Amino acid sequence: MDHPRPASASFLTQMGPFPNRRPEEGGPKVKHLVLFQMANDKPIQVEQFFKVHFPRVLNALPGVESYHSGAYSSFEGFNKGYNWAAEVVFKDQYSRDFYVAHEEHEKLVQLLEPLLESGFDSIVAFDMLI
């Protein structure tokens, strides 16, 4: 399973250097957490994104062990405007890299962007090794 070549992947230019790991250099598991400030005036499209498009892509790509997504639901109010979250566990770093560069992920990002409150400034992504 070689890395796909990112198509136009304009969002990759906002990241650090792509690591170009090989499958045998998979590394430890990765928990990928993303917080979103989704537009409040598009509730049906937002729900469809997380319930239909997000699972479709994750179920189609190798190395995804589990995923969850959901709307903010606490009374605490410490969400700072982030009203949706997603979590993906990848079997290794290679699988995370594969996902990030894959054209299906790029298509997912393109579907996501118009649903965000302020474009890509409405996202916080955090990966940790587990």
Give me the secondary-structure topology:
Layout: E1 30-36, H1 43-60, E2 64-71, E3 84-90, H2 93-101, H3 103-112, E4 117-120, E5 123-129
Antiparallel strand pairs: 1-3, 1-5, 2-3
Helix pairs in contact: 1-3
Class based on secondary structure composition and strand pairing: alpha+beta
Proportion of residues in helical segments: 25-40%
Q: Summarize the main sheet.
A: 4 strands, antiparallel
Q: Provide the low-confidence segments as ranges.
A: 1-9
Fold and architecture overview:
With 130 residues, the chain is an alpha+beta fold. The chain is built from 3 helices and 5 strands; from the N terminus they run E-H-E-E-H-H-E-E. Helix 1 (43-60) runs antiparallel to helix 3. The longest helix has 18 residues, at 43-60.
Keywords:
130 residues; 4-stranded antiparallel β-sheet; 5 strands; disordered N terminus
